[in-house]
Write a structure and sequence with these properties.
alpha+beta, four-stranded antiparallel β-sheet, three-stranded antiparallel β-sheet
Length: 139
């Protein structure tokens, strides 16, 4: 029969002592992650602010039950952006700009990046209606 040498026994005890806190931490983190508070999928209501030349021209609620609507933002030079908003999102359907990048951005449903049309000087910024404002946002 094989007997453990003292240094092997000490190594086994030390390994167990180091693994115990790691196991307890994993259980604690798992319990926090699976709690009902952490699983809440309810997001704050969204609002879209439409700016032209840096001036706020429209503020639109973007709730999921909002009736879809389409409107056009015109400039004095004949430039336009046709905007669709509703059902939790907003996007540019068509525009008079040559590159159509604002149209290619599609329907946005989050506040991460704005929709921008530089040739027509249009910016659509989505914001969350929340009591807490972040100190800083990084992209």
């Amino acid at each position: 029969m094989h007997r453990m040498k003292p240094y092997q026994r000490n190594a086994l005890v030390l390994t167990c002592l180091l693994l115990l806190p790691a196991l307890l931490s994993a259980v604690w983190i798992g319990a926090e992650y699976l709690s009902p508070k952490a699983r809440s999928t309810e997001s704050p209501p969204l609002t879209a602010d439409v700016y032209r030349d840096g001036e706020l021209i429209h503020t639109l609620p973007l709730s999921a039950d909002e009736k879809p609507r389409t409107f056009t933002v015109n400039s004095g030079e004949g430039d336009y952006n046709e905007i669709w908003a509703g059902e939790g999102g907003i996007g540019v359907l068509s525009a008079s700009c040559p590159d159509q990048l604002c149209v290619k951005q599609g329907i946005r449903e989050d506040s991460l990046l704005p929709i921008v049309c530089l040739p027509n000087r249009l910016v659509i910024q989505i914001r969350e209606e929340s009591e807490v404002t972040p100190d800083i946002i990084t992209y």
